[in-house]
Amino acid sequence: MPATYLMKMTVCILTMSALMLAGCDKKPEERKAEKITEQMLKGVMGKDVDVDIKGKNIKIEGQDSKVEISETNIWPPDMFEDVPQFTSGRIEHVTKTQEGGTQSFNIFFADIRGDVLKEYDAELKGKGWQTQLMDMGKGGMISAQKDKLGLNFSSSQDDNKGILAVFSTQ
User: What pTM was computed for the model?
Assistant: First the structure.
């Protein structure tokens, strides 16, 4: 074989290898975790799903559903417009679910300062929400409804944590 043919083959093989490696930006543990999770969810749900793990962010997609779990400290940019931003705590992570025509957000908070339920309840009422406030001393819960949106917010002063669950009821 001529040397130019071997050189072209070598360049071609090296180029293909580089392109394949460029697509392998995931850690082996992430790829393995994705496959195990996909198999478990298929067994539970009876449907194929695609699991995508990137660091501490997880996306699970099925034929008619989508779940995103992300470790973020920002308010979701695609949150429903009528939901006032809760700012009296630090966001630890966010879970976003979309199934059929419904969508939901779960926002987990830490470092909540003081008894903030009454303040957030007033803010919701100011935006036209119908609310019920259940004060339980060192914490409590708000349940609220506005048009096709529902909201539950619970917090505890014992550990300064809370969770805001917002969902569409379409």
Answer: 0.68
